[in-house]
Amino acid sequence: MDLNDFSVGGVVDTMLEVPIVPSFTRIGYETRKRVDGWTDLSDYDLTGRTMVVTGATSGLGRAAAEQLARCGATVIVVGRSADRNQGVVDQIIAETGNPAVSQVAADMGRPDEVRALADRILSDHERLDVLAHNAGALTNERENAPDGTESTVAAQVIGPFLLTTLLLDRLIESAPSRVLTMSSGGMYSTGLTVNKLEMPADDYRGTEQYARAKRAQVTLNEMWAERFGGQGVHFHALHPGWADTPGVDRSLPTFSKVVGPLLRTAEQGADTLVWLAADDEALDTNGSFWLDRRIRPIHKLGSTRRNDTPDRRRQLWDWVVERSGVDPADRAG
Ligand SMILES: NC(=O)c1ccc[n+]([C@@H]2O[C@H](COP(=O)([O-])OP(=O)(O)OC[C@H]3O[C@@H](n4cnc5c(N)ncnc54)[C@H](OP(=O)(O)O)[C@@H]3O)[C@@H](O)[C@H]2O)c1
């Protein structure tokens, strides 16, 4: 919300943003699109740009990968199953006529698979323009990654940090490049925590665990930008509002039923991800957090703002360096 923006779009946007229901549902999407006069995504020509989308077999990532391919990008689909990935690749090629779509299977919660994914990208692609961290799930029962890490944190905090680090040199060589992280408006409810980032089995609540991981994502996004933004890599986090996807249906069935017709389509939820991958406006800032093509605050509550201290941020960075086994400071000059 930009309280200094008194344009018609700015005022309407502020009225939508204060109560979250109209803002996060398709009402927010449709109103902002109309009032702000958005460029149609099909107007972007992304020929020659290489883009990785994790979680591209379903929901938002699937919609984003298809739109990016339709704009001519070289797209790498990442999901956990090679068969599922290949099915999506075949469909996208058939629907868009763009043959430059391929896949790599990797579980973002398994460091060995993330490392193999990075090796494949580096060996198969000379440049990397966009790395979109979209893979994610809200799990109602605590699940562990093979190394014992809570699965939400493993796949949405540690795995993306590892992958960005392993691809950082290629992103810098390809500058201006972009690293995009699909967070969630759910993170507004919770403050930054490091020692309680992984919830224990006896006090596990899926929505709270998810919010903590998503809060860590937006914090790390800002820290990446501060530390490496000067080298031509633009880091942005975003949230999609509430979109009707298989993931929401599975994890939040009651919510999905109640909000039902007001949910955005997957394409609407993916719009800002595609726009950030395509539009030069993403190169004007670094470390921003977005909804519907506008920069948003990362805090709406005083309590979460108070928790977000420089010390805690440093602890988070050190923690994820330790847990991922890589330090980006050692990789890029
Ligand atoms: N839909 C919403 O309203 C909403 C709201 C806020 C935030 N989000 C965020 O948006 C992103 C996409 O969600 P969605 O609603 O589109 O969910 P979805 O339909 O369940 O799609 C999730 C995607 O992530 C992949 N994935 C899940 N865990 C993975 C792992 N460990 N490693 C690699 N890939 C993995 C899945 O692929 P495979 O199963 O093929 O591996 C699938 O392609 C998530 O980060 C989610 O938190 C969504």
The CATH topology is given as Rossmann fold
CATH A-level architecture: 3-Layer(aba) Sandwich
Order of strands in the sheet with most strands = 3-2-1-4-5-6-7-8
What compounds are bound to the protein? NADP nicotinamide-adenine-dinucleotide phosphate
Measured between the Cα atoms of the first and last residue, the distance is: 36 Å
Work out the number of β strands. Answer: 8
What's the helix-strand series? HHHEHEHEHEHEHEHHHEEHH
How much helical structure, as a percent, in the residues? Answer: 40-55%
Strand content: 5-15%
Describe the structure.
It is a single chain. The protein is of the alpha/beta class and 333 residues long. It has one domain (38-330): Rossmann fold. Helix content is 48%, strand content 11%. The protein has an eight-stranded mixed beta sheet, with helices on both faces. Strand 1 (50-54), helix 4 and strand 2 (74-79) form a beta-alpha-beta unit. It is globular and about 50 Å long. The mean pLDDT is 94. NADP nicotinamide-adenine-dinucleotide phosphate (NAP) is lined by residues 54-61, 79-81, 84, 107-109, 134-137, 155, 182, 184, 239-240, 242-243, 245-248, 269.
Quick structural summary:
By secondary structure, the chain is of the alpha/beta class. Helices cover 48% and strands 11% of the residues.
Feature tags:
alpha/beta; 8 strands; binds NADP nicotinamide-adenine-dinucleotide phosphate
How is the secondary structure organized here?
Layout: H1 8-17, H2 20-24, H3 26-36, E1 50-54, H4 59-70, E2 74-79, H5 82-96, E3 101-105, H6 111-124, E4 130-133, H7 151-173, E5 177-182, H8 206-228, E6 233-238, H9 246-251, H10 253-259, H11 266-278, E7 288-291, E8 294-295, H12 302-307, H13 310-324
Parallel strand pairs: 1-2, 1-4, 2-3, 4-5, 5-6, 6-7
Antiparallel strand pairs: 7-8
Helix pairs in contact: 1-3, 4-5, 4-11, 6-7, 7-8, 7-13
